[in-house]
């Protein structure tokens, strides 16, 4: 089966890009199509936090106060906790990735500024990825949508995987955070898959997912015994619950092809 024939069976729109970093083998389809980024935009926000640690001496022990007006719906836990509490930048950035906390993300956006995150994206050579607004604000700013492409998210993951995102240390810290993402990943088998018992934890995944009512994404790095590959799968045009199964099918296709390369 080819990628084209697989995708033809799956209603919806897809942007796909993956590359084996050892062999250079690439799988791509619709990789430059622009999609709403959903929570994938949290990856460059994390990168900007860690860039400031590296280049400007920012301390992750610095704290921000979460006010009642900062609490927004959607994913995460801070929306349900006590307003007026202080949280460190370390904890906010971890919550933003591990449980995709929207309130933590907005606190970091307010602290960093939209312009600074976009300046880093331009510096990294990612012109189609943009942070346009905070998350889950009411009323929603529907005319301004955070956006990205499969190619650019995979490129961002490649910079991380190869130690070129600002520095080796920043890249290492990015991998550490992304490995803690609690959402299921699309492009490697679950650790309980009997076909791979005895090979794990040789397979490790650092990734970030994103979800909207009509969109579901995953991007990340897969480390396995034969090497490393990066992958990004963006989808839209159907309920997120349906798209989750579809991007999983695409992800398993990518895993089989690139792991064998």
What would you note in describing this structure?
- The protein has a single domain, classed as DD-peptidase/beta-lactamase superfamily (Beta-lactamase), CATH 3.40.710.10.
- The chain has eight helices and nine strands.
- It has helices at about 5-10, 40-55, 90-100, 100-110, 115-125, 150-160, 170-180, 240-260, and strands at about 15-20, 25-30, 35, 65, 85-90, 145-150, 205-210, 215-225, 225-235.
- It is globular.
- About 45% of the residues are buried.
Task: Present the secondary structure layout.
Layout: H1 3-8, E1 13-20, E2 26-29, E3 35-36, H2 42-56, E4 63-66, E5 85-88, H3 89-98, H4 102-112, H5 114-123, E6 147-148, H6 150-161, H7 168-178, E7 204-212, E8 215-224, E9 227-236, H8 240-260
Antiparallel strand pairs: 1-2, 1-9, 3-6, 4-5, 7-8, 8-9
Helix pairs in contact: 2-3, 2-4, 2-5, 2-7, 3-4
Brief digest:
By secondary structure, the protein is an alpha+beta fold. The protein is 37% helix and 20% strand. The chain has a 5-stranded antiparallel beta sheet, with helices on both faces.
CATH superfamily, by name, is: DD-peptidase/beta-lactamase superfamily
What would CATH call the architecture? 3-Layer(aba) Sandwich
Cα gyration radius (Å): 18 Å
| Low-pLDDT regions | 192-200
Strand fraction equals 15-25%
Proportion of residues in helical segments: 25-40%
The major sheet is characterized as: 5 strands, antiparallel
Shape: globular
Mean pLDDT comes to 92
Total count of domains: 1
Structural class by sheet pairing and helices: alpha+beta
Cα(first) to Cα(last) distance is 16 Å
Q: Count of helical segments?
A: 8
Structure summary, number of beta strands: 9
């Amino acid at each position: 089966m080819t990628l084209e024939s697989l995708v033809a069976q799956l209603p919806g729109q897809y942007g796909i890009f993956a590359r084996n970093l050892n062999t250079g083998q690439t799988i791509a389809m619709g990789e430059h199509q622009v999609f709403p980024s959903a929570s994938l935009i949290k990856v460059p926000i994390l990168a900007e936090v860690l860039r400031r640690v590296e280049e400007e001496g920012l301390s992750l022990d610095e704290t921000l106060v979460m006010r009642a007006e900062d609490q927004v719906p959607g994913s995460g836990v801070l929306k349900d906790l006590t307003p007026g509490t202080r949280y460190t930048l370390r904890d906010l950035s971890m919550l933003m990735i591990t449980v995709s906390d929207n309130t933590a993300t907005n606190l970091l956006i307010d602290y960093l500024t939209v312009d600074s995150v976009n300046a880093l994206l331009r510096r990294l050579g990612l012109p189609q990825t943009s942070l346009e607004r905070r998350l889950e604000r009411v009323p929603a700013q529907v005319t301004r949508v955070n956006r990205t492409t499969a190619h650019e998210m995979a490129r961002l993951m490649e910079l991380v995987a190869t130690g070129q995102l600002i520095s080796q240390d920043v890249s290492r810290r990015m991998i550490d955070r992304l490995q803690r993402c609690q959402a299921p990943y699309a492009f490697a088998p679950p650790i309980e898959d009997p076909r791979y018992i005895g090979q794990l934890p040789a397979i490790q995944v650092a990734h970030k997912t994103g979800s909207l009512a009509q969109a579901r994404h995953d991007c990340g790095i897969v480390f396995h015994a034969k090497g490393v590959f990066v992958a990004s799968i963006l989808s839209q045009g159907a309920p997120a619950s349906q798209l989750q199964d579809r991007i999983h099918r695409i992800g398993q296709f990518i895993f089989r092809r690139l792991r064998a390369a």
